[in-house]
Write a sequence for this structure.
């Protein structure tokens, strides 16, 4: 092979290599974890949200979820949108967050608070989904990367909701390998769902049993909201000691 032909072959090989590797590099950059601390510190977040941060520890929560730029996320019982906004900032303009609420919850508790938040630029990639809990996902939505269900599963237990159907719908909507992050206020052993309406707590083992019955596999647990000093016998609103709360990561098997 002559020197000219050899150099030409090397050049063609280098161009082919760049063409093949460029999408991989772009995908890696797209999937990069955002700066969670910077998201929480964003200057346009409200004072009310910053007060909630003190007990919710959102940077740690976002890191535990593993939310990435470009992801497609469902936030169950979004309520006024505190977590929805944080997730929207994390996935960025190339991602989407579906914020689910039932019409009954909006009417009784949310009112126009979500709509006010939705006007913020950070919420441009959010789709408000008003659907019942036992059928929470629009039929045209599938292949979700992540579902979050924060401090609200206990509420579902005293509503007229088929929780088994709800959990199966969430399982079906996730892509294989996708994650469900669920957090709630801890009840005492043996309480089950009996104190969900009165204390707004749920026994961790009861929740685990219901979620795992849908096919989810527990892959991690976090302790950053654990407070063993909590006797778990009082309402979670305005507690005398910090509430003991569990945070669980489930995965849909590949």
């Amino acid at each position: 092979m002559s020197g000219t032909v050899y150099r030409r072959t090397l050049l063609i090989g280098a161009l082919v290599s760049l063409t093949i590797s460029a999408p991989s590099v772009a995908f890696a950059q797209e999937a990069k974890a955002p700066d969670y601390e910077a998201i929480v510190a964003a200057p346009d977040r409200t004072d009310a949200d910053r007060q909630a941060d003190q007990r919710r520890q959102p940077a740690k929560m976002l890191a535990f979820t593993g939310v990435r730029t470009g992801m497609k996320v469902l936030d169950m019982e979004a309520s006024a949108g505190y977590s929805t906004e944080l997730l929207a900032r994390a996935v960025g303009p190339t991602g989407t967050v579906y914020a689910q609420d039932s019409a009954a919850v909006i009417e009784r508790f949310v009112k126009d608070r979500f709509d006010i938040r939705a006007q913020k630029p950070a919420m441009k990639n959010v789709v408000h989904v008003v659907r019942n809990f036992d059928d929470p996902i629009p039929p045209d939505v599938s292949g979700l990367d992540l579902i979050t269900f924060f401090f609200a599963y206990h509420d579902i237990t005293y509503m007229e909701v088929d929780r088994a159907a709800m959990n199966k719908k969430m399982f079906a909507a996730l892509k294989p390998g996708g994650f469900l992050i669920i957090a709630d206020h801890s009840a005492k052993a043996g309480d089950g769902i009996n104190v969900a309406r009165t204390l707004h707590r749920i026994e961790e083992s009861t929740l685990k049993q219901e979620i795992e019955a849908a096919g989810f596999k527990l892959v991690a647990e976090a302790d950053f909201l654990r407070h063993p000093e909590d006797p778990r016998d009082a309402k979670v609103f305005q507690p005398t000691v910090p509430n003991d709360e569990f945070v669980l990561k489930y995965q849909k098997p590949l």
User: Anything to note?
Assistant: The chain has ten helices and seven strands. Residues 3-30 form the longest helix (28 residues).
